[in-house]
C-alpha cells in the first residue's frame, strides 16, 4: 500500500529482493502490468504503454505531481495532465497539485469526489456544452474560481 510510504516525502529509491514480483523504474512501483504507486518526489509521470491496470490509490502519495502523461497506452489516455480511461469517459487520476483542470467533451457527468484530494485547483474548464455534477459536487464548487465552456480548435 502506498500509504505505508506516506510519511516518507523524500522517498526516491526502492530496492526489491531477487525474485520479487515488484519492479521500480525510478518513478513508480509496478507489479507485472499493474501500477502500484508513484513516488512522492515525482512531478511529471509518464504512464508506460505496458500498464493495463492501476491501483485505486496509486497516486495518493504523489504529493508533488503536477501532470500525468500517457502516450501509446491501449488502456488509458491523458488530457491536460489528467489520466482518463481510454475513451476519456471517466477520470482515473488527477495530480494533487494541478492548478487547471480541463475536462474533455466526452465527460458529461462528473462525480465531484474525484477532486477531494486536489488542493491546488484554481481554474476549471470543460468542453462539453453542459455537464452534470453528481455526488459531492460541493467539492468541485469549493475549488472552482472560474467555470466556462471551452471549445478546442484542431
Determine the mean pLDDT.
Answer: 81
Give the strand tally: 14
Strand order of the largest sheet: 1-2-3-5
Which outline best applies? Answer: globular
Number of helices: 1
Q: Which secondary-structure class do the elements indicate? A: mainly beta
Major beta sheet summary: 4 strands, mixed
* Helix fraction by DSSP (H/I, runs of at least 4): under 10%
Assembly state of the chains shown: single chain
Alpha carbon gyration radius: 16 Å
N- to C-terminal distance:
41 Å
Order of SSEs: EEEEEEEEEEEEEHE
What percentage of the residues does DSSP assign to strands (E)?
25-35%
Unreliable spans: 145-154
At a glance:
The chain has 154 residues and is mainly beta.
How does this structure look, described?
The chain starts with 21 loop residues before the first strand and ends in a 5-residue tail after the last strand. By secondary structure, it is mainly beta. Strand 1 and strand 2 form a beta hairpin. The chain is built from one helix and 14 strands.
Question: Characteristics of this structure?
Answer:
mainly beta, 5% helix, disordered C terminus, 1 helix, 154 residues, three-stranded antiparallel sheet, four-stranded mixed sheet
Layout of helices and strands, plus pairs?
Elements (H helix, E strand, L loop, with lengths): L21 E3 L3 E4 L2 E5 L5 E4 L5 E2 L12 E4 L5 E4 L2 E4 L5 E3 L6 E4 L5 E3 L11 E4 L5 E3 L2 H7 L3 E3 L5
Parallel strand pairs: 3-5, 4-6, 10-12, 11-13, 12-14
Antiparallel strand pairs: 1-2, 2-3, 7-8, 8-9
Amino acid at each position: 500500500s502506498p500509504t505505508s510510504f506516506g510519511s516518507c516525502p523524500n522517498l526516491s529509491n526502492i530496492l526489491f529482493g531477487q525474485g520479487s514480483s515488484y519492479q521500480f523504474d525510478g518513478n513508480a512501483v509496478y507489479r507485472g502490468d499493474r501500477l502500484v504507486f508513484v513516488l512522492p518526489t515525482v512531478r511529471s509521470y509518464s504512464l508506460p504503454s505496458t500498464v493495463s491496470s492501476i491501483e485505486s490509490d496509486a497516486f495518493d502519495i504523489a504529493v508533488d505531481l503536477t501532470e500525468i502523461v500517457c502516450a501509446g497506452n491501449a488502456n488509458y489516455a491523458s488530457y491536460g495532465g489528467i489520466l482518463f480511461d481510454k475513451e476519456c469517459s471517466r477520470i482515473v487520476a488527477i495530480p494533487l497539485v494541478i492548478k487547471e483542470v480541463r475536462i474533455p467533451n466526452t465527460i458529461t457527468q462528473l462525480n465531484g469526489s474525484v477532486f477531494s484530494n486536489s488542493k491546488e485547483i484554481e481554474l476549471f474548464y470543460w468542453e462539453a456544452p453542459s455537464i452534470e455534477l453528481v455526488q459531492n459536487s460541493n467539492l468541485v464548487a469549493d475549488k472552482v474560481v472560474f467555470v466556462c465552456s471551452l471549445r478546442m480548435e484542431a
